[in-house]
Amino acid sequence: MDYERLLSRYPYAELRIERSMESFVSIKDEEVRHSSGSVRGMSVRVLEDGSWGFASSSREDRIEELLERAQRMARLVKGKIRIAMPQAVKKHVKEKIDPVDDDEQVKTLLEASKNMKARNITSRTIACTDAVIREEFHSSHGTEILQESGYTYLSCSCVAKSGELMQRGSDRAWSRSGFGKMDSLETAGKSRDKALRLLDAAPPPKGRFMVVFDPEMTGVFSHEAVGHACEADSVIDRESVLAGRLGQAIGNELVTIIDDPTADGFGRYVYDDEGVPAKPAVLVEKGVLKGYMNSMETAKALGLEPNGHARAGDYSEVPIVRMSNTYFQKGESKVEDVFDMKEGVYLKGMKGGSVDIFSGGFMFKAEEAYWIKGGEKGKVMRDVTITGNILQTLLDVECVGDDFGTSPGMCGKFGQEVPVSDGGPHIRVKNVAIG
């Protein structure tokens, strides 16, 4: 079908077509479940009189009907929306993905489940998702993009119990080229060991301490506290503590944070869901707020260039401003120098939390923590929660390691989930509240 001809009847219109396959394996103790299915459908957006109209269908023979419906919706109200359109492109992007053998995958995951068994382990859970996605994008100004990609996402967790005390350990792994590229036994073993360690852990001290974030905690802080506050839709709606601060120092010069969809991370892609080339977005550079993540609409509203950060969970959802791979850049200090302090707390992994990007307040709970004295790691601690303010914490970073690590995840926003990763080095932060 001549999509460009159909779309060119409208002031601006775009079409997204998705055909994807997904399989899911879960193992709860000795119970194995496997399911698979496909997603097929299309959606259109029409921009007319300053307003968007959107329509979607699981049937691929309804494009003209969908375009007419989206146009009617756009005409319901006159708006002020304008977009910054990139140059038209015609591209085919295909990632190499090794096919999954279902029987072999289940056999491997059962071995991983057995590897989680140990005295005091009372339950074991493994969840593994494989997806192969084929997406087409067409616009009225001549862009034609075909992207074929896939991912595998593995999560392992254990519950350990001793007397009345229960603790959970978890770990995750990912691949963009097939299940066989991951070490599920290692991931399962890490979750087991973490749960068992926490059974012997002590409660944390309360007060303000020097702390060291491991790469996972550094990444989560970068994603949750800084990344979400740098999503341009939140900035425009004045919901972000970073609104109106471009060019201002918001942290010390050790802090550089970038969101990069072109990096080799779980959130990697080449073109976003508006057909815009993915570009690294420098959010904070040497403590100065340098930029936001943009869609075509938010870029125009802020007088900036679109940088390919509009993503949709699937064809039936509208593209919104999202993160991809959000990384705190490594520094020049050796890791042992990061730990070079009289005493403090080492935070490892992330167990949940919340951020208010309007006020800048946050609360994070570490998976596990260790008391540090004279640069040496001491007793393990559990249920360690930190609280603070984004801007003050960025100012209080005082040492950044030259190492680097990343973690995968599925990020939710407005009911949509997309693959992301975050990461960074070990960093030391002063005067952090622990409770």
Describe the structure.
This protein has two domains: 3-199, 2-Layer Sandwich (PmbA/TldD fold); 207-434, no CATH class. It has helices spanning 3-7, 63-74, 102-115, 184-199, 215-227, 232-236, 296-302, 335-338, 390-396; strands spanning 12-28, 31-48, 51-57, 90-94, 121-139, 144-162, 165-175, 207-213, 257-259, 281-285, 288-289, 310-311, 320-321, 325-328, 343-356, 361-373, 376-381, 385-389, 397-400, 405-413, 416-424, 427-434. The chain starts with a helix and ends with a strand. The chain contains nine helices and 22 strands. It is globular and about 70 Å long. Helix 3 (102-115) packs parallel to helix 4 (184-199). The mean pLDDT is 96. With 435 residues, the protein is of the alpha+beta class. Helices cover 19% and strands 43% of the residues.
Major β-sheet profile: 7 strands, mixed
Number of domains: 2
Mean pLDDT: 96
Count of individual helical segments: 9
Shape annotation: globular
Summarize the structure.
Helix content is 19%, strand content 43%.
